[in-house]
Amino acid sequence: MSLINIFSDYTLRTVALGSALLGAMSGVIGTYAVLRKQSLVGDAVSHAALPGIGIAFLLTGSKNIEWLLLGAFISGWLSIYIVNIIIKHSRVKYDSALGMMLSVFFGLGLVILTYIQKIPDSNQAGLEGFLFGQASTLLKRDVIVMSIVGGAIIIIVALLWKEFKLLSFDPEFCQVSGFPKEKLDLILTTLIVIAIVTGLQTVGVVLMSAMIIAPAVAARQWTDKLSVMVILSSVFGGLSGVIGTIISSSTRNLPTGPVIVVIISAISIISLFIAPGRGIIWRRMRDKKNKKRLNRNIILNNIYNLSTEGNGTQGYSLEDLSISKGDFNFPINTLEKELENLETLDLVKVKDKKWYITEKGINEIEDFRGGLGE
Questions:
Q1: Of 92, 217, 256, 64, nearest to 209 (Cα)?
Q2: Where are the domains of the chain?
Q3: Contacts of the segment 141-148: beta carbons below 8 A, 24+ positions apart
């Protein structure tokens, strides 16, 4: 199965488009959840949506996706509302309240789902698909709904860009500046709930939290600018949806939702390692480079200190330098290697196994000291 099949196969095209829309929408709104350190919100809301799906089916007797998602939205939003009440009127912390609501609502959802499955009605079959998603059942109208919801979320984020930005980075200043902090928080939380509920059919309640958090985590590694982070998060989310759909369609009985989550998780892990500036490998290389530069300056400074105490033309052996009066001393092997590096830079020179600081080396260390304010 290749990228060309997306344009030729109607079902694959529908699923790929729906998954891409979900990824892009989740990436945009998930950025704020990550920046506000509310990553657990996605997990709590997605799990709390399960009882809403079950109750909606019991009340309507229909598997109409609009009714089921409405029930999921009410249930998910109610869980966050209860969390806010708990932290406002008790000493329970935010993450503890979220974890409690996650367990309670998900447990209730499983109980309701088990009860529904025992009802002698064939119409209830398939509801368990919401646990891990059923992307292959996406229809054209589902994609249209995703497009409308996603478009609405992006428009609201654009209109409240300044307010959401202030709320994410400095909520205290947001409040004292006269912005309605509680209303903004309610709007942002509601948007997160809507995005999560919209993606339940594709990824499921168990894995939906990854679609909210992973794209934003990956994007955060590549930039410090909010606008770029939102765009990158959206691109990563959409890309994972398309790639996951292609991979799952090329292998029989391979569920689309979990594959999409694996892809976006892989993108996040790769970003954590190789992203410039923040990536683990990048930081290791930078630390190694800084350590090498520090060693060079320390050794050069030691030679400079010794030369200023003497007549300025005296050379020093490795043994002299290894026990110099500098702040740091180095083993002979390390010292010799660093001196050779300094020699290639024409900062020191060696003659008769004694090391001398050059004019260039003197200028270098005096500039370095000047930068430190000495």
A1: 217
A2: 14-209, 282-372
A3: 142/18, 142/65, 142/201, 143/14, 143/17, 143/18, 143/21, 145/66, 145/198, 146/18, 146/21, 146/22, 146/25, 146/198, 147/21
pLDDT tens per residue across span 175-205? 888 888 888 888 998 999 899 888 887 887 7
Would you give the distance in Å from CA 249 to the centre of its chain?
27
Question: What is the pLDDT confidence band of residue 68, given thresholds at 50, 70 and 90?
Answer: confident
Q: Is pLDDT above 60 for 61?
A: yes
- Taking Cα atoms as reference points, which of 299, 304, 302 lies closest to residue 342? 299
Q: Structure tokens of 219?
A: 């994007």
- CATH 1.10.3470.10 assigned to 14-209: yes
Do 232 and 219 contact (CB within 8 A), yes or no?
Answer: yes
Q: Determine the distance from the C-alpha atom of residue 245 to the mean position of all C-alpha atoms in its chain, rounded to a whole number.
A: 22
Q: What is the value of pTM for the model shown?
A: 0.79
Task: Using the Cα atoms of residue 314, residue 317, residue 323 and residue 329 in order, give the sign of their dihedral.
Answer: positive
- Specify whether the CB–CB gap between 99 and 40 falls below 8 A: yes
User: How many whole angstroms separate alpha carbon 330 and alpha carbon 175?
Assistant: 54
Q: Is the pLDDT of residue 333 over 60?
A: yes
CATH architecture of 282-372: Orthogonal Bundle (1.10)
